[in-house]
Design brief:
mainly beta
Length: 608
Amino acid sequence: MNFSRRQILGRSALAGVAATLPMPLWATGNMGGKMGGAVRKGMDELSGARVDLHIGEGHFATGDRSGHAIAVNGTVPGPLIRLKEGEQTLLSVHNMLDEDSSVHWHGLLLPFQFDGVPGISFPGIRPGARFDVPLTPRQSGTYWWHSHSGLQEQVGHYGPIIIDPAGPDPVQYDREHIILLSEFTPMHPHQIMKKLKVAEGYFSMQKTSATDDYPLSGEDRRMWGKMRMMPTDIADVSAPTYSYLINGHGPDDGLELPFMPGERVRLRIINGSAMSFFNIRLPGLPMTVVQADGQNVQPVEVDELQIGVAETYDVIVTPTEAGAFAIAAESMDRSGMAQASLTSQPGRKAAFPALRDPPLLTMVDMGMNHGGGGGEPAEPMDHSKMDHAAMGHAMPEAAPTDAHSGHDMAGMDMAGMDMSGMNMRDTSLLPDTVKVGPGIDMVSMAPQDRTGYPGLGLDDVPHRVLNYRMLKSLEMDHHKRAPDREMQLHLTGNMERYMWSFDGKKMSAVGDKPIRFGYNERVRVKLVNDTMMAHPIHLHGMFFEVVNGQGHHQPKKHTVIVQPGSTATFDVTTDEPGDWAFHCHLLYHMHAGMMQTVSVAFPKGEAA
């Protein structure tokens, strides 16, 4: 059955209609008690012609921590929604909270009115109201859903989506497990935001000090001090504020996922966290990456991968012997770990590796080219003669080549360097499109493409680590067009004031001035990261292709990590009309203003 736009809008306008059948307690939004009863860990599975999601609240506990949670259908995470490509369903969202809510279907192709972003594509779901989304999936793969209202995502409002292909799955497997990564904290998310605004380093427990054992010389420490920056500034919020979860289970819960020796086990890894990058490994068990952001890729075997917030990776592991393997998801700053055991015997737990030493930022992360960064090696620079012009313009960005380049600066000792010619805040290097003001406290002097970089702390490990240049789409794109035009966006921020933006303009200032694209336009977008933090940038409504040197096999993604002080480029065909969100998926960065609206024109003769 097909729906016209008028019929779709009419159906979605139905609100406040109560179900006539008996409902479980969680469907009333209150699971017992004033603030709700106990929230279950893990997730149920929903499928079929109608899927009902009830957004409620309750009390969540893991380890020695407990606190308020937003639960969907009584669980954190919310239910797994399992659909079939080409088969129609109705996603019905019931808001049982006393505040507005929403659901964004992350990575799904659907009309913009149902994308679920209040203020951009719809007004939100009022307390007691219902919002219906008619969907016939045009894709298959691993995706997820989450709230786009306030900071509800931090409190438990998220869950996985699997869409099975209409035909044979090119990925053959005997068993699958979802690995949904997230965090839990009893601290209210608005309290977290307040603390970040007052003191952005409030949650960092890895600061340098006079007695630390970080491998930094005295010259290094003085240099960082002069720049008012911290080489350990890896994550805004981390352990011990967070307990890291897999499928709602903390490390103390002893989550077990079964297998039989010889099985091909598909792990559908989803980073549904608010703020955390994770390094995933199963020590002693290689992973074959077969899908990225729901899109099939040519199989590539690795021993570890870094997954940014909102990304998904599907991997195949084949344990040939009985036993237990650790699924270790170490936070990028190595302050904590989410854990589960892949085990062939109930009750048999894996031995988990110890947390590794925290990584340190380097001069490459400042946007300075020293022969690394992911492109062609650059000529060595005479630091004693550096000036702004040389740093900003003398080092052209090279095309991606070596998949493992960009690691040269990992252990760099800055001692003896003349840093006097460096100005990390030289706004004259920025184009006129960037609004200069208090929202910018750093400018990358010579940002380079770093798609060949595996992620902070993973450039010198003794095993194989995934990077974007290793990703090749499974099928060749024979219809790929050259870009019609190119555009550049700068990722900007002031870490001390906790201000985040695109081109120096936060969302509240540019909501009425969207980034405009014509229908079916082909655009190359270059993202320039002027900050020293990695940003996972997500485009709603359509997939883009990461420009990674793979030609007609460029991988399609919905989220791309832009490394600190670097660039990343993607090509996009804007064939999904409507207004779409475009933002950093670090929740508190988006909340602080690192978000824009992308407006794609409708085809001629078709009105919005």
